[in-house]
Structures are given as structure tokens and as C-alpha cells.
Amino acid sequence: MKLIFEHSVAGRRAVAQMPRRLDSLDDLPEHLLRRDEPLLPQASELDVVRHYTQLSQRNFSIDTHFYPLGSCTMKYNPRACNSLAMLPGFLDRHPFAPAVTGQGYLTSLYELQQILIEVTGMAAVSLAPMAGAQGEFAGVAMIRAWHDSRGDTARTEIIVPDAAHGTNPATAAMCGYTVREIPTDAQGNVDLDALKKVVGPQTAGLMLTNPSTLGVFEQQIQAIASIVHHAGGLLYYDGANLNAILGWVKPGDMGFDVIHINLHKTFATPHGGGGPGSGPVAVSERLVPFLPLPRVGGESGHYRMLDERDCPRSIGRLSGNHGNGGVLLRAYIYARMLGGEGLRRVARYATLNANYLMARLQQTGFDLAFPKRRASHEFIITLKRLKDQTGISAMDFAKRLLDYGFHAPTTYFPMLVPECLLIEPTETESKATLDAFVDAMIAIAQEAQAQPELVKTAPHTLPVRRLDDVRAAREPDLVWSVGRECAVR
Amino acid sequence: MPWLTAHWLKQTTTEKFVEMPFIPHTPAEVAAMLEIIGAPDLDALFDEIPADLIGLPDAALPVALNEMEITRLMHDRAVQDGRWLNFIGAGGYEHHIPAAVWQIVTRGEYYSAYTPYQAEASQGSLQLIYEYQTMMASLTGLDVSNASMYDGASALAEAVLMAVRAHKLSTRVLIPKTVSPIYRATVKTIVAYQGIEVVELPYDPVTGTTPVPQNEDVFAALVIPQPNFFGQLEDVDGLTDWAHARGAKVIALVNPMTLGVLKPPGQWGMRDVSGVQGGADIATGEGQPLGAPLSSGGPWYGFLTCRTVLVRQMPGRLVGRTRDADGHAGYTLTLQAREQHIRRAKATSNICSNQGLVIAASTVFMSLLGPEGLRRVASACHANTRALTTALTALPGVRRLFSGNSFHESVVQLDRPVAQVLQGLMQAGILGGYDLSQDYPELGHALLLCATETKTVADLTRYTEQLAGILSVGQTA
Ligand SMILES: Cc1ncc(COP(=O)(O)O)c(C=O)c1O
Fold first, then answer.
1. Which residues of chain B are within 8 Å of residue A352 when distances are taken between CB atoms?
2. Which residue's CA is the closest to the ligand 1 atom numbered 8?
3. All domains of chain A, ordered by start, with CATH?
4. Which atom of ligand 1 is nearest to the CA of A262?
5. So what's the architecture of B99-363 in CATH?
6. How many C-beta neighbours within 10 Å does residue B35 have?
7. Domain extents in chain B
8. Cα(A177) to centroid of ligand 1, in Å?
9. Residue range A189-200, pLDDT digits in tens
10. Which of A245, A343, B236, B371 is the most buried (most CB within 10 A)?
11. CATH number of the domain located at residue range(s) B85-91+371-472 in this protein
């Protein structure tokens, strides 16, 4: 497809969308002004609308396709959450407008805080972090602030299981910690002996996802908590998988000191082609003073943002304002539409769908990474045997699924399971969709035997064929410039 | 909490199959699924979770509302937040957003997709990001752009980290006091644990801009805001050349809306002919003015562009154009060896999800406005703020605080506490600006105001008349 720049015609303007005239800048000195013209399209409103509408049709999305991307909780995003968060009263409010002008907004956020405190079993929450990774940063920074506040500065390490998401070790490093990785045992649990060996007076904390990124519940969580706490470390809960236990198991009850919640997963806010997300952090009593700012405080009718004067021991601010406010509104609306009962139902049906899909795939001959375990809200199959037999990799398989009209599961994560697909159906998908997915999986497994080339060269029905990632990295082409050759298709 | 709780608790002991919002399962389907699993009931699916961890239903949570009920509630709240005539800027700017922008990007194909991991099934988002990268690189006059950071303040922190990694010899970074105090606070939080020393540079109280420093030890980078937090235009050329002559990187902190008319960071400096390479090395800032609603502060996005030599130090996603198996052009995430999912503890940043949908909005916004639209918006903001400042400073008790050039915000000094005046203006439905006296007590009763292109002549007159009325009370002649 053409680039928007290739639709550009010098002198064409979407005049209805812009101010009527160019005002004078004659009071500004010449040397501070721009001489050249930025490379922006010159197009009509229809040109732009048609181009971006056509581009949208080259995307898979939840609204158009089953999207079982493990660890991402691609559940249906209710439309009311969007339209209500975009009411003019919410959209038009300036972040520095006084609190009295935002009681509708602040009330919603305050109540969202209460809901999150309830479902996590923690003492307090800050909605400031703008995605899971920023929640992790806030969490680990608070762990550090807590140790520092006790003069305990010899703690230099954060322990992370090898199955952990990449943001966990990257966060620990940003907070100035050395990362100690520990292995996973054959059943997908943390290797307790290895943990006992690495834990010590240098341990600041442990970051854990539960259910883990392997799609199983970490059964020894209480033992892990006691080992880490005994050594003086704190426990961080990566809440990316909260959907699996929402309303049934509270991270606070498992012994966690700090957790982040990905609202763009568990609370159905949009993933937006990459974001915006939202990653509130919740903490146990001892970490409350360190929560990032701002937080919503006050009382009904008089809510306001708490700042440095209210919370002098805070780790500080993570953004210019208050995180992703519009995303927080969407999460709040979702929570209210589900209510306590509906939130609890989420985990139950997400787990049902995952276990059903896992059982069906196993019964049709796929290898489970952890065949003796229940699935949480997601599970892993490994295509190692298929690869050995046919040369078809998990990547080939994933690409062929696209031809069948399914977004691929997460591939090659966690890295410790070879040729893996991490499959997360979510609670909003029907049995019929899951069955159709199983049919496609069976069909592809047969193709892998009978017509391996077909699978190896997939996809065949999408706007582009398999893309050359090596070329993309070797000869980076990151921006277009005038005079460059056009896109051919 | 003012919500209904308790009554649903009675129903949870027996599983209710009807009326499950957003869950499509019928009782017959659930039974069939359990049979395939070989589980007697739904409870059995949790049998690996230690029993003492499983909690009872939470009585403190509210009952479910249907769409009609939640619509009523949120409408009431949105109306409660009201409509104000807004003259606050200070990092967030009220601009007209064409109707097409959010209608297009809230299409499900954009709204409900995720990071384009499966490139062939995500060509829409990927091509859009490539177009975005092209626009931002050109707007800032630099070579490459990433696919967004969370917001302007956190992006500045990432730019600082990036510059320090690139400089290698020093971990000192100079940030003028004319950078937003909230941005400075955010940078401090985010870089706190990596041994970086942030040095604040003073401003000239006459011009409200940053003088070229006299002496400085070795430093890794200088941040240059343009326009600065006071709305004043800095001597970007002089500051850039000064930093480059000392081997430091220049981080431009810019408002992208102004770049339709202001000199882009990539062209700053170079007045010095002593062989120093001109132009900022990194540009960053808040993308909100390009199509994101104010929305109480988010979601907005941070942009980050740089010179090609720095691209491997970039945090976040990058999209590249490549070819498919048939030789046709296509787009994919690239240079991922910088990122957390590959490099883990050695990644350039921990960022994973970014602000994808908001840059989609920005891309549509920039496409609709084009170079001419951007120029017109920027010039209208400049003209409106100039007109308002002129009108207000004609009132007794109001004077312009800084000499020199300002762009679309300006600082006026009042004869009484700003908070009190703002309170008075609110009585007339006006949000009169940002009170500087808390962050900059040395400026006295200083008010930062902003009139964007959304303000009419009548709006400016209304502000002026109301302020005149407020100031006339208790004024000594
Ligand atoms: C297990 C896990 N942890 C952390 C994250 C990071 O969250 P975010 O992308 O919101 O920063 C993710 C998701 O991408 C995840 O799956």
C-alpha cells in the first residue's frame, strides 16, 4: 500500500480542519524560525480518512479475530468503556485545573483505587504508572526505598526466575540492582533449592509472576514468601496474570509486599496497537509511604491529587501528570459493569477456556509443556517433536495460523520451553471459537506432515508474505524520504 | 463506598449461568467443556491452588451495572466536571482535534490490536508507525524516531539515560530551571538509581531564559527546552554550540506543535564554524498537542528522535521497512536487540507497552493538518497569547514579567496572590492559568497563561474584563 506521503499533492489542504489564516510571527527573530518545510502530507480529509481506514483493514485485532496471545490477555474491550471515557467533560479537563473542576473524574479514580485494593488484598495503591513495566519500576524502587529507610544498604540483588518476563530483569537493572536468575523445576515451579542457595543478606527482593508465565500456579508460593522474607527481602508480584485468579486469590494473602496490575489485560482496557496501558502499583502497609505520586486522596466531594507535601517519603513522580487517566476511566467503567461478582467470574471462565483448549489440543496429539498440571488462564504447547520430524518451527506454525484467520499465540516466550506457543484464550471467547481454533491447529499439523513447504512459507493470504527480519535489522530503514521508491503493493 | 454491595453475595453459592456480562458461555457448553477436561465442576479447575489461599467473595465490591446504568452514572460525572474557558498550558495544550482523528483510531482494528509481534497480521499498525516515525523525524529535523514513550516527562528521563550511555565518560546532566518542575522531578525519580548527577542551571530573571553557562566540569548532556516552561524562547543556537564544544550531547525538549514554525532541533547551532557538528543529538517532548485530548493528563505520549549514530541506544519499539518473500515492501519491528524481551537486564530500558493508540491519533492529526495546518495552529496560538498578554498588561496591576520573545505562553505578574485571582476568575467560568508562585517563589505573584487557537476574540475580551473587575477591588490608585 502507498504511504500517506505518496498521496500528498503540493498545495492540497484539509482547510475545514485548520484555522482560517496564518497569523503573523513578525515579532520573532528570523534565526529562531523554521526555514524548511517538515515532511507532512498535503492531503484532503477524504485522502486521510481513506488511507488510514484502509490501513486499519490490514490489522488483526480482537474485534476482528481470535487473538490468543499468551501473557497479554486479549479479552473483548467493551465499547461503552471507550465512549463513556470520551465524554467531553472528561476529555476537555486540563490536568492542572483545580480539583473542584474534576470531582467526577477524581471520584471515579478514587473508587477504582478502592476496587483494586480489594481485589489485591493490599493496603494502598497508586494509579500513576503508565504500563506494567513502569509499575515494576515503581515497585522495585519502593523496595529499595524501604531498605534504604532502614539503613539496610547492603542489599544489591533482585532474584528473578528464568521464566520471568523481560521487563522484570530490565526493571531491576534500572533500579540499580544486580539480577540473580533462578531455574524452574520440571513441573514449572520455582526450584526451591536454588532459591535457598542464592537468597541472603544481599537479597533486596524477588520478582514473581503467579500464575507464572508458564501457565501454571506456583504452588509453593507460601514457602517462597517465607524464604525471602526470612532473609530480609521483599516480594514483588508481577500482576500480568491476575486475570487467572481475580477475586479468588489475593496477592496480599500470598505474602506479596508490592504488586502491579496491567489494567490493559485484566481490566479490558484497549491494547491500542501497543498501548496505552496502565500499571497501578499496590503495596502492603509498610510500603505505603513510598508509593509513587500523585495518588487520589481526600473524601467524597473533595477528592484531590496527593503530592510531595502529603507524601514526603514517596519515590516521586513517574510522569508529568497522573498516568494514563483515560485508561483508568475505562478500567473503572469495566469494573463497575462487572461488579464484584462479575470480576470473580472472569478468573473462573478464563480458566475454563484455557483448560478446555488445552485438553482438546492434547487429545488431538499436541505436546503440553506441563502435561501433569492444570492450566491457569493460559498454557504452553511445545512443537519440538514436530520440528524434529518435519522441520516446521513454532514460528512457521504461528504464521500458518494467520492464514486460517487466527492471531498467533505468543511464540518463543518463555524461552526455556523449546518451540513453544503460549496460548491464552480469555473468558470472552465462546466454545465455538475455541473449537474452530483447534480445527485449524489440527489442519496445520497435518499440513506440516503432508505439505511442509506450505507451512514453511506461510502466510499466503495476508497483505504481505513472510517478512525478512534480518534485512530489516541489517539495513535499517526507519523513515521514508522524498524520492525513495514507492511501496509496491 | 456509595455503591450497592451485599445482595449479589447470596447468589454465588450456586453457579449462575445466565446474565454474565461479556462471557458467552451457556450452561450446556460449560457442561460439555468440563466433560472434555474431565473435571466435575468449575471449582476443580482451581484444585492446584492451596486451599487456604482461596478467598470468599468480597463483600466490599459493588454490584454490576448494565450499560444503561453506567452510562447514566458517567454522564452525570462528566457533566459535573463541567465546561470551562481554559487558559492553562504548562505542558498540556487545548487544541482543536479534527473529528476524523479519534473516529479512525477507535476503530477496533487499531483499538483492540496489540504490539505488532506478528508483522504480517499487523501491517496496518506497522505502516502507520513507520509514517509516524517519518513525520516526527522530519518535524524535529533528526534522522530517526522510535514508536513512542509513555509521556513527555518520562521520555525526557529516557533521553537523559540514553545520552549518558552514549557519552560514556560523564554521568552529569545539565537541566535548566526553565524546564518544567514536574519534568525535573520525574527525571530525578527515573534516573535516581543509575548514579546520574542532575545539575540545575539558573535562569536570567530579566529574560526568563537560560544564559550560556560560564564554566562547567565535564558533562554528558545539556537539556534545552524550546519554548521553555515560561513560554520564552531560549538561545538554542548558542546553548547547542556551547555544549557541543565541550563534547556533550544536546537533548532538545520541544513542543512539536511549535515546530511547524520554530527552527527544528536538528538545525540548532552551527553558527560556530570551528568544525563542531551542529544540531541537537536527541529531541524529545510531549506529543499531546498533536491530537491527544487534555483528558486530565493522559493518555498522552512522549516522542523521542535522534541522530542515526545513537539509534542503538534508543529505548522502545522501532519499526523498519523491509521486504517480504516476494520482494514487496512490508514493515516489521526491528533492532530489537536493544529491548527487554531480548536483552533482559542489559536492555536500553524496561519499556514494553508504549502509547501506540495515541501516536496513531497523532499520525492522523498530522496528516490532516499538514505543514500548512501546523503553521496556522502554531501562529494562531502565538497571536492569541500575544493579544491576551497585551490586553492584560494594559490593566493596572498587571505587567509582563520577562523581556525577550515568548511563543504561546507568557508570564504576567499581578499585584496580589495568584491563587486569589484565579479563584475569582473561576467564579466567571474561567481557568486563568498556572500559578508559578509555588515552584518559583522568587517570581512573586507570577501567572503563566496560554491562549491557544481555540480562543476567540470574545474569549480574550471576557478574560480581560473579568480580570479588570477582580483587580479593581482593593486597588490603591
Ligand atoms: C508477565 C509480564 N510482565 C510484565 C509485562 C509488562 O507490561 P507492560 O507491557 O504493560 O509494560 C508483561 C506484558 O507485556 C507481561 O506479560
1. 25, 30, 33-34, 37, 42, 45
2. A132
3. 80-338 (3.40.640.10)
4. 10
5. 3-Layer(aba) Sandwich (3.40)
6. 12
7. 21-79, 85-91+371-472, 99-363
8. 19
9. 999 999 999 999
10. A245
11. 3.90.1150.10
